[in-house]
Amino acid sequence: MAWVYLLIAGVLEVVWAFTMKQSHGFTNFKYSAITIVAMIASFGLLSVAMRTLPLGTAYTIWTGIGAVGAFVVGVLALGEALTPMRVGAAVLIVSGLVLMKLSSS
């Protein structure tokens, strides 16, 4: 179950990153509220996952999901640049996540 909690926490990290951008510096109440709720839920689920997963594994995977997810959302929803260098960086992050998962018992 810890891996499921960690996956959901990572997805919520993407949600709060996107809604923080949409809040325009916390000036839009709706997006600001979603950001804060998603942050609290993400941190809460991360902490539950850390009860059984190693700190390094849980934190690395959580931030990796957030980083790659935010990159994908930025490209698809916000029209950010999709360059070979950025794609390469995302591939390296995903490779690190896979190695981290494989190295944990």
TrEMBL record:
Origin species: Comamonas resistens
Q: How is this protein named in the record? A: Guanidinium exporter
Family per similarity comment: Belongs to the drug/metabolite transporter (DMT) superfamily. Small multidrug resistance (SMR) (TC 2.A.7.1) family. Gdx/SugE subfamily.
**What residue intervals traverse the membrane?**
33-50, 57-79, 85-102
**Pfam families in the record, alphabetically?**
Multi_Drug_Res (PF00893)
Q: Give the record's membrane topology.
A: Multi-pass membrane protein
Name the UniProt key words of this record, in alphabetical order. Answer: Cell membrane, Membrane, Transmembrane, Transmembrane helix, Transport
Q: Which domain of life is it from?
A: Bacteria
Subcellular compartments: Cell membrane
